[in-house]
């Protein structure tokens, strides 16, 4: 078995675990679903809620205005963007939908996407097909897995292509698609590019300039370790300069200037809605601050733990590791012969081990290609330990009779 040298110091690991109350009572390997929040994030959220209760919601927001502005600055720093390019929204799916709605699609227009895009995104494409007549075309995969950039190039050259959209990391697999290569293709052809980075932010470096994307959607709750119920959208300068805005802009995104006219807000905030849960906006800001403090050693450790776990699980009888691609991230997916993933998930949870299950409808094309109806998903993060991986593998071995 390959030995993965995880480079974080023992002191750093001890600090991360001390900062994470959930580590004390269970083994959390469901960070691709919702990671455990650091104590400082929890304190930030509850602290603002306490202020709302004490002085009023609007008043507490006014009081917190500098820290709310800091959330935009921190997110911009995390993604190598500017604060004006950041919009805060309810979740990554809303972010993705807001970006899609900025295009004036017509019947016969094309969206080029991949065979492993997130199911909510695939459903949006199909909805646009049913409602407007937009055609969805899916690029071929490489032999080793992941989208083939040359296939994207061939399809995106079509004169009716309006958008290329890609899930950087799909929900049902540890695959990392070559988002950078696809971005280079889109820049070459002058086709707008939308990236779903829901599973990427927090477990890998995200540089929107390097990706050359026009839009990027993300969330707080996964590897970024923020609260649930908040996401964000990066909107590139090119899109802002050409006047892009969501289909259903509201009074956060525009000013109603005359009975039949409105003026868009400057920057990406035209993609926001007026009402916010400001407690979790602040929680997102604190999660980003914490991630920046941890630095690249955290994602590196998460990936190395996942690589080690992949090898351990592959050694169990009846277990098939399903992750493909040249690059594989901190998501490990397996199919267990004769067992439903959801049942195994619940049985592991009873033993204090958190995992997740993905079903066929989480990735119809990908799951069918792998001849899998359900997969058990393990997603370690940097605060997990080798001993926790040992315990999880031992528990699964017991459950499957290995």
Topology:
Blueprint: H1 10-18, E1 27-28, H2 39-55, H3 57-63, H4 65-79, E2 86-89, H5 92-100, E3 110-113, H6 119-131, E4 135-138, H7 149-156, E5 161-167, H8 179-189, E6 193-196, H9 208-211, E7 215-219, E8 231-235, H10 237-241, E9 254-258, E10 261-264, H11 278-294, H12 297-314, E11 319-321, E12 332-336, H13 341-350, E13 353-354, E14 356-359, H14 364-369, E15 374-378, H15 386-399
Parallel strand pairs: 1-13, 3-4, 3-5, 5-6, 6-7
Antiparallel strand pairs: 2-8, 7-8, 9-10, 11-12, 12-15, 14-15
Helix pairs in contact: 2-3, 2-11, 4-11, 7-8, 12-15
Across the major sheet, the strand order is: 2-8-7-6-5-3-4
- What overall geometry do the principal axes of the alpha carbons give? globular
> How are helices and strands ordered from N to C?
HEHHHEHEHEHEHEHEEHEEHHEEHEEHEH
Mean pLDDT: 95
Q: What is the strand content?
A: 15-25%
Span of the ends, CA to CA: 18 Å
Rg (CA only): 21 Å
Provide the helix percentage: 40-55%
Structural class: alpha/beta
| Number of E strands | 15
Task: Summarize the main sheet.
Answer: 7 strands, mixed
| Poorly predicted runs | 1-6
Enumerate how many helices there are, as a single number: 15
Describe this structure in words.
The structure is a single chain. The chain is an alpha/beta fold. Helix content is 41%, strand content 16%. The chain has helices at 10-18, 39-55, 57-63, 65-79, 92-100, 119-131, 149-156, 179-189, 208-211, 237-241, 278-294, 297-314, 341-350, 364-369, 386-399; strands at residues 27-28, 86-89, 110-113, 135-138, 161-167, 193-196, 215-219, 231-235, 254-258, 261-264, 319-321, 332-336, 353-354, 356-359, 374-378. The strands form 4 sheets. A 7-stranded mixed β-sheet has the order 2-8-7-6-5-3-4, sandwiched between helices. Strands 11-12-15-14 form a 4-stranded antiparallel β-sheet. Helix 9 links the parallel strand 6 (193-196) and strand 7. Helix 7 (149-156) packs parallel to helix 8 and helix 12 (297-314) packs parallel to helix 15. It starts with 9 loop residues before the first helix and ends with a helix. Residues 1-6 have low confidence and may be disordered.
């Amino acid at each position: 078995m390959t030995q993965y040298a995880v480079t974080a110091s023992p002191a750093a690991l001890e600090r991360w675990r001390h900062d994470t109350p959930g580590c004390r009572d269970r083994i959390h390997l469901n960070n691709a679903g919702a990671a455990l929040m650091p104590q400082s994030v929890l304190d930030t959220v509850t602290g603002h809620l306490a202020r709302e209760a004490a002085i009023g919601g609007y008043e507490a927001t006014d009081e917190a205005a500098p820290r709310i502005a800091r959330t935009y600055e921190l997110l911009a720093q995390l993604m190598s963007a500017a604060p004006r390019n950041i919009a805060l929204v309810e979740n990554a799916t809303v972010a993705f939908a807001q970006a899609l709605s900025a295009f004036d699609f017509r019947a016969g227009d094309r969206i080029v996407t991949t065979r492993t895009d997130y199911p909510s995104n695939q459903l949006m494409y199909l909805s646009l097909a049913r409602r407007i007549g937009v055609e969805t075309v899916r690029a071929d995969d490489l032999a080793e897995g992941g989208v083939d950039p040359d296939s994207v190039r061939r399809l995106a050259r079509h004169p009716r292509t309006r958008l290329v959209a890609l899930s950087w990391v799909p929900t049902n697999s540890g695959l990392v698609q070559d988002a950078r290569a696809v971005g280079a293709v889109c820049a070459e052809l002058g086709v707008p590019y939308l990236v779903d980075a829901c599973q990427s932010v927090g477990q890998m470096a995200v540089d929107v300039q390097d990706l050359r994307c026009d839009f990027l959607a993300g969330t707080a709750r996964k590897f970024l370790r923020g609260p649930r119920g908040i996401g964000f959208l990066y909107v590139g300068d090119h899109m802002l300069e050409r006047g892009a805005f969501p289909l259903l802009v509201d009074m956060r995104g525009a000013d109603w200037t005359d009975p039949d006219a409105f003026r868009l807000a400057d920057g990406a905030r035209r993609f926001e809605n007026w009402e916010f849960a400001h407690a979790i906006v602040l929680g997102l800001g604190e999660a980003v601050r914490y991630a920046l403090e941890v630095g690249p050693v955290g994602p590196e450790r998460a990936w190395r733990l996942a690589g080690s776990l992949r090898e351990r699980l592959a050694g169990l009888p009846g277990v098939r590791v399903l992750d493909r691609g040249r690059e594989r991230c901190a998501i490990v997916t397996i199919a267990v012969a004769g067992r439903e993933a959801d049942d195994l998930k619940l049985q592991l949870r009873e033993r204090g081990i958190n995992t997740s299950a993905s079903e066929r409808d989480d990735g119809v094309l990908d799951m069918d290609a792998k001849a899998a109806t359900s997969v058990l998903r393990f997603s370690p993060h940097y605060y997990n330990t080798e001993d926790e991986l040992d315990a999880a593998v031992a528990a699964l071995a017991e459950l499957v009779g290995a």
